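User: Hi! I have a protein structure encoded as tokens and I'd like to know what sequence might fold into it. I'm fairly new to this, so please keep things simple.
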């Protein structure tokens, strides 16, 4: 069962109470009868699996540190990658004058 935190509006005392999810929030302190308000608490989240860490998306050489998702080794339109990872320039076509 979840544990909820409440603040006593008269004394500013904070206490915890274990309640079922289906139970409605308290409006009065169970012992003193003072008005209370349920506090919202941040929840700790742990993402597990691949793809959640910065190091998961980086290459082993660590070439890209910008996090933009683009590879720094992208080639221009006039270049192609040959076998073995070497970059070769394509011959540019001469503009026909005429």
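Assistant: Happy to help. Inverse folding works backwards from shape to sequence: for each of the 98 positions I chose a residue that suits the local structure. Here it is:
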């Amino acid at each position: 069962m979840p544990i909820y935190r409440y603040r006593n509006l008269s004394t500013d005392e904070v206490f915890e109470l274990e309640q079922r999810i289906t139970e409605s929030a308290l409006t009065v302190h169970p012992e003193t009868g003072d008005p209370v308000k349920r506090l919202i608490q941040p929840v700790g989240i742990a993402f597990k699996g691949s793809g959640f860490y910065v190091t998961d998306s980086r290459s082993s050489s660590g070439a890209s540190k910008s996090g933009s998702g683009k590879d720094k080794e992208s080639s221009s339109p006039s270049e192609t990658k040959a076998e073995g990872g070497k970059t070769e320039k394509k011959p540019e076509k001469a503009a026909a004058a005429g």
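A useful reference point when you look it over: The mean pLDDT is 74. Feel free to ask if any position seems puzzling.
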